[in-house]
Amino acid sequence: MSEALEVKNLVKTFPVGKKGFFSKPAGYVHAVDGVSLAIKSGETLGIVGESGCGKSTLGRVMTHLLPATDGQVLLNGVDVTRAKGEELQKLRRTIQMIFQDPYSSLNPRHTVGRIVGMPLVVQNINPAQGRKKRVQELLELVGLNPEHYNRYPHEFSGGQRQRIGIARSLALEPKIIIADEPVSALDVSIQAQILNLLQDLQKQLDLSYVFIAHDLSVVKHVSDRVAVMYLGKIVEEAGSEELYSKPMHPYTLALLSAVPEPNPEKVRQRILLTGDVPSPINPPSGCRFRTRCWRATELCATTEPPLVQISTNHKVACHFPGPTPLPN
Amino acid sequence: MSKNILEVNNLSVSFNTSDGQVHAVDNLSFNIKAGEVLGIVGESGSGKSVTASAIMGLLTSGNVNLSGSIKLNDFEIVGAKDSEVRKLRGSDIAMVFQDPLSSLNPYYKIGVQIGEAYETHHPDASKAEVRNKVIEVMKKVGIPEAERRIDSYPHEFSGGMRQRVVIAIALINDPKILIADEPTTALDVTVQAQILDLMRDLQKTSNTSIILITHDLGVVAEMVDRVLVMYAGRAVEVSDIKAIFSAPIHPYTKGLLNAVRSLDSAIREKLATIPGTPPSLLNIPQGCAFNPRCSYKQWAGDKCLVQKPELHEIGNGLTACHLSKTDIERMNKDELPVV
Known about the structure:
The complex is a heterodimer of chains A (about 325) and B (about 350). Chain A has about 325 residues and is an alpha/beta fold. Chain A is about 30% helix and about 25% strand. Chain A has helices at about 55-60, 85-95, 110-120, 130-140, 160-170, 190-205, 215-220, 240-245, 250-260, 300, and strands spanning about 5-15, 25-40, 45-50, 70-75, 80, 95-100, 175-180, 210-215, 225-230, 235-240, 310, 315. In chain A, strands 6-7-8-3-9-10-12-11 form an 8-stranded mixed sheet, sandwiched between helices. A 4-stranded antiparallel sheet of chain A has the order 2-1-4-5. In chain A, helix 6 (about 190-205) links the parallel strand 7 and strand 8 (about 210-215). In chain A, helix 4 (about 130-140) crosses helix 5 (about 160-170). Chain A is globular, with a radius of gyration of 21 Å. With about 350 residues, chain B is α/β, with parallel strands linked by helices. Chain B is built from 12 helices and 12 strands. Chain B has helices spanning about 50-55, 80-90, 110-120, 125-140, 145-150, 160-170, 190-205, 215-225, 240-245, 250-260, 305, 325-330; strands at about 5-15, 20-35, 35-40, 65-70, 75, 95, 175-180, 210-215, 225-230, 235-240, 310-315, 315-320. Chains A and B meet through helix 5, helix 6, helix 7, helix 8 and helix 9 of A and helix 6, helix 7, helix 8, helix 9 and helix 10 of B.
C-alpha cells in the first residue's frame, strides 16, 4: 500500500490578544504542534481527542482550508501547504471534507442539486453525462432519491442532510476524505446508518478516510489505525486492535476508562482524571499531560517525551508507558 | 416498597403551530419512587424534554394544550396556579440543563446565581447566611476554592466546572426530584465521567430522586435503576435497567441497543441499523408510530397499522407492542424472522 497522504511536523498557531493593528499578539494558541502522520491508500485513520486538542484544526490544515504555520502536507509527493492557484485547485480534487453539522454546512437557499453539483462548477468539470445526471448518480450512491434534486435542505432530516454532505464530498471523485465528527450531531439509530454508508463507499470507491471524532467507540468501529491527540500533539498512535486492547499512554487509558458502556453488568475500574485540559496558549512544560497524570515525575516537567516506536504498529509519547493503570 | 414521589398519568402535550398541531407527548404515564433514578431515553423529537418541561410546570404559554395529571406528593401540577408551582420549582423539583454555557447568565457572578435560587425560597435569609449556604453547596459539588470562586464569573470556569455550578443551583434547596436533561452531552468524555460520578455520589448521600433524560445508552447503563423508552411522544417500554439491556421487550428498544457501539464490539464491524427515520410529530403514523420502521410487524397482523398499542405488562416490564409474549421472547432469542 502506498501513502496517500503524509503530514510532516505540521504546526498551526493562532495569534491571540492583539490590541492594535500594528501591535504584536500577546500570545499564540498552539492548536497543532508538530504532528506527523501518514495515511495509506484505502485505509481509515481515526483521530480522537477532547475538545480543544486540535483535531479539527489538523483536519482543516490537511485540506488547506486553513494555511499551515509550519510543516508539510504531502499529497502524492506534492506539498499542499505551499501550493497556490491552479495547482492547489487540482490538489483539492483529491482531498475533500465532510463536516460535523449537517444543518450549518448546507446553504439553506440552494437546492440539493446545486449544493451537490457546486464542486463540479467550481472546478469547471463537465461530466460526459451532464452535471445534472452526475449529481443524480451521486444522490443515488448515498441512498437518496435522485428525484429530490430540486428540493431544499430544510425538507430533509439530519441523517439525510449528512448524506447530502457526503454526496457533495464525493462529487470530484476524491481519493481522501477528511470526516470531521460526521455522526456526532445525529441520533443513535441514524449514526449507524451513516457509519455503514461510509464503510460501503470506502470499499466501492477505494477511499482513504481521516476520521476525526471524540467518541472512542465510533472511532473503533471505522478505523484501521487510531491516533490520540492531547493539546496539539499526538500522544499515542497504533493499530485499532492494539490501541484498544493494549493502550500504553496514561491519557489513552483514562480516556478509554471514561467511556460509558452500554452494559449495566460490567464492572470496570475507572480512572478519574482531575481537572480540565490546560490552556493551549500556555501549555505545561515538558509533557503536556503531566498536570493531570498520576505517573508524572520531575522528568516529565523538564523533558518532553518524543513519540517513539515501541512495536511495529505502536507509537507512544510517554516517559513511563505501560498498560496497567496505577492511579493513586 | 417506598412511596411514589411523582406520578404522571395520561399526560398529553401538543403545540399549535402554523404548520398544524405538533403532538409532542401522547398519553404518557409513569411514576418515580423516592431515591430512585429513572432514565428517559429516546431520540430527538421523542418528547423527553417536553415531558421535563411539563413536570417543571413550564408549559404555560397560549399555544400549548396540556392534559392529564402530574402529581408531586399529591400536589397536582397540571392546572395549578403559577404562583403555587413557583413555590415548588427550584425547591422540591429542580432541573439541570444540557448546555452549561447558555444556562448561566454571563453578567452575574456565579455566587449570585447560586444564591438567587436559595433567596427565592428563603426570603428572610440574611446575606451572610446565603453566602455560607452557597459556599457549602459549591464544596458539595466539588468546586475547589469555593470561598474565592464564589465571586468569579461563568466565563472564568471550564465547561465541567460550569456544569457543577448548574448542579449547585439545582441542589441548594435539597430538592426531592432532580430532572437532569442531557446533563453531560455537551461535555468531554473525561469530564462527563467526573460529572456522572458526582451525580451518583450526591444521589446516594441525599436520597434525591433523579429523572435522567438522555439519548446515550452508555450513560443510562451506568446511572439509572429503571428506564422509560420514548418514541414519537409515547412510552414504548418501561423496564428494569438490567432487563432492558439483556432482554428488551419492544422492537424499537432492541433496534436501538443493536445500533449502539460499545468498546467491546469488533473493529470495523458492520452495525445493525433501524431503517428509516423517526416520524415528524406533525404527522405521526396511524396505529403504532414505530410500524413503518419495525422489522417484526408482520407477526402481529394488521393491528400495528390501525391500533395504537397500550402499555401492558410482560414479565417485570411494560411494553407498548402488539407482539405476543411468546413472539417477544422469540425476538430476544433472534428466532423471530424479520422482514
